[in-house]
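User: Here's a chain of 89 residues. Predict its fold as tokens.
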Amino acid sequence: MGNRSKRNLGKYDAPLVIQYRKGMDDFQKGRLSNPFHKDTMQYREWNRGFNKAYFDRLRKVKKYESKGSKNIGEGSKRMDTEKAQFHAT
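Assistant: Prediction complete.
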């Protein structure tokens, strides 16, 4: 315990990597509630991990949506020309 007091660390201060990873894992598993007390560093680190996982996923979804929208637009144009040709005959 002497080392903690020398470094001015409290009972809930370290290791915070565990809470960060737990926040990331909880996002992946769909657990939305923070298991730590609100006014602790653990709570903030869990939130940081959860938010990191959320924004990583959001970036990935936006990337795939932007790729897909180009193909979808081309497909609908093709369908329009096929319909026009069908109705013309």
